[in-house]
Every structure is written in C-alpha cells, then in structure tokens.
Amino acid sequence: MTTRPSNSGEDLRYSVAGMDCASCAGKIEDAVRAVAGVRQVRVSLASQVMSLATSGAESTAAAERAVTALGYQLSRLDDSRGRAGGPDEEDGKLPAHLAAGYRKALWTVVLLNIGYGVVEMAGGFISGSQALKADALDFLGDGLITFLGLLAIGWSLAWRARSALLQGIFLGALGCGVFVNTLYRVLVLNIPAAELMGTFGAVALVVNVTAALVLIPHRTGDANVRAVWLFSRNDAIGNIAVVAAAGLVYWTATPWPDLAVALVIAGLFLHSAWRIVKDARSDLASS
Q1: Strands (E), the chain
Q2: What gap in Å lies between CA 264 and CA 91, rounded to an integer?
Q3: What is the pLDDT of residues 67-86, one digit of tens each?
Q4: 140 with 42, same domain?
Q5: Number of domains forming the structure of the chain
Q6: Which SS3 state, helix, strand or coil, does residue 92 take?
Q7: Contacts (Cβ under 8 Å, ≥6 apart) of 93
Q8: Are residues 209 and 134 in the same domain?
Q9: 209-263 residue pLDDT tens
C-alpha cells in the first residue's frame, strides 16, 4: 500500500475491510499499538473505521503495514467528502476491496450468511437444539456486519454509527434470548434430535467454506487470502463444535453437550454485540 505523507501529530482515519468480529478489532489495535511512533489508535467494529494518531509519515506507514500484514484492507478516509480516499482513487482506480466484483461477492456472502442463519435458527427450534440456535446467531451476525459494511461505503461516521448501534442492539437481544433460553433448558432437560442437529451443523460448515471460496478470488496478496481462511476457520470451529455436540448427545443420550456448546457460542456472540454497541456509542459521541 502506498502511503501519502502526513504531518506530525495529524489524526488519520481509515476504512478497514475484513473485520467480522470483536477479536478482529482488538487484534488490529494491539498490532498498531506495538508500532513505534503511534500515539493513539482506536478501531471501531461498528463503523469499520480505524482512528490513528502518529508522530509522522514513517510511523504511519509502519502502522498501515502492521494492519495489512494481518490480512485487512485499508482505505484512507477523506473527512471533507465522507468517503474512502487513497492513492488508487487519485489515479481514477478504486481499491480492490471496493471494486464491483468484490462488492458482488460480498452480497453473495451476505445472502449465504443471513439466509442460512434463518434456516439454521428454524432447524434449532425443530430439533430442540440450543447449539444450532447459537450458531445461527453467528451466521446472522456475520451477514449483518458485512451488510452494514456494504451499505456504509460513502456514509458519514455518524450514520454508520447509528446503523451499527441498531444492529448491535438487535443482535444483542437475539443473543440474550438464546442465552436465557439455554439456561432455562438447563432446568428443563429436553434431549435435542441429534440427527437433525448434526445435519444442520454439517450444512453450516459447507456454507462457511462456500463463502470463503466466493471471497478468495477478490483478495489480493497472501496475507489477505490467509485472513479469509482465518475468518472461515473461526466460524467453522463453531460448526464443528455443533456437529461434535450432536454426536455426544446421541452417544450419551443427554442434552448437556448441546447446552454447553450453546452457552459458549452465545457468550462469544454477546461479546461481539456488546463491542458493536460500545463502539457505535463512542463513534456517535465523537462525530
């Protein structure tokens, strides 16, 4: 990535493409803080924006390299126009992650995630599996975050933050519902249908791999390809956990494996929803 010179003490803002969970934002912040000359950094999962304050052009370039090395795409934001700006745009060429083909691929991923999230949620109710419901939330969360990122290209920070705040509240409410229902199921031990549970979990794994295959042709550089697989790997771990829980439910004839996986996935999901709401409120306060 080519870096434009920045003045000492200048506050910079970037659009970050590729984040899909709270841990992504935290990983970027940790990497950038480790760069010499970085005075302050904050990454908002809600608005997909990184705010950066450095001591000069050299530390700015190093911070940018630290982010792209993790597999994320950066675009400098021009506050006066409220849209992404950068060297590629100055040459009349959009950055790779804003190109039409990549946007089309993202829409495909949105439809895959939200569509199967709804299907898996229905499967959770039919089979009585709390783990399937929790895993469905992960699909819905990923789809909505990507959907927001697509809609928010060109939006002001305030509007991105408002949209993210509503999304975070909605996802948090869903997560709380699954979490509370899982705790209730601890008291009312109903054994889920292990066969249905395993089938939906296996299909979920296929959907995640398909989403990764759709995105890979539009990722440039080895680091970005690794990032796509990292995201898919993290989601796939949840899918495999559901399938494993289904096997244990069948083997032990108890609902405990299903409930344990549901609590873990729902807890991680609620953490992401909380991070979105927190970031959105912070963005609104600073906009």
Answers
A1: 11-17, 38-44, 49-54, 73-78, 83-85
A2: 47
A3: 988 878 788 876 443 343 44
A4: no
A5: 2
A6: coil
A7: none
A8: yes
A9: 888 787 777 655 444 445 555 556 667 778 888 999 999 999 988 888 998 888 8
